[in-house]
Design a protein that fits this description.
Keywords: DNA-binding, Phosphoprotein, Transcription, Transcription regulation. This protein is an alpha/beta fold. It has 10 helices and 6 strands; from the N terminus they run E-H-E-H-E-H-E-H-E-H-E-H-H-H-H-H. Strand 5, helix 5 (119-130) and strand 6 form a beta-alpha-beta unit.
Amino acid sequence: MTIRVVVADDQEAVRTGLVLILGSAPDIDVVAEVADGLAAVRAAAEHRPDVVLMDIRMPGIDGIEATRRITGSRPTGTGAGTAAGATQVLVLTTFDLDELVDGALAAGAGGFLLKSVDAARLTDGVRAVARGEGVLAPEVTRRVIRRYAGAPRPSSVQGLERLTARETDVLAGLGRGLSNAELSAELMISEGTTKTHVSRVLAKLGLRSRTQAAIAAQEAGLVRPGP
């Protein structure tokens, strides 16, 4: 399957480099490149890509607001789910400030990488997000884990009581960063059944991405990350 990608970055040289890197992968097709947030939203509506590779600091609306408009993200607990075939957003930025990470993930981004990432990890990240799996830069992952380590935080997640026991197990696995294959092996179910459970978890909790689900699992105390 070919992964259709829109590249959004206001720096022409960076955008050209990203297009070259992604275009060299046999399973990735860059269908559009744009230089601002509004153009990214329009390109996503026009081309219906699998992934938008999104910069944050851009003219007009920034990458976080563009992500929110593309994903149709709603506040936790409103019942919004992930539609099959929906466009995913992978944020790629120079800045790894906590407020940008939180803003991007809250807006529904499926991943957050830094522009220091190498070509192989970038293409792998695009593939993972296209599969509906979360991707975080190692620097960001360490900070997120530290933030949720220790005493459980009051959970803002609504709808946990609607999850079945198996769906709760799936949410806990997402909180540990497990892929569908790893969840299937651990729970001894097929990958197709795992995908169904993941979709139901996202829909019941009103979440847009696996990354949001992972944070929700940590907030709910379903995961006890170590240091």
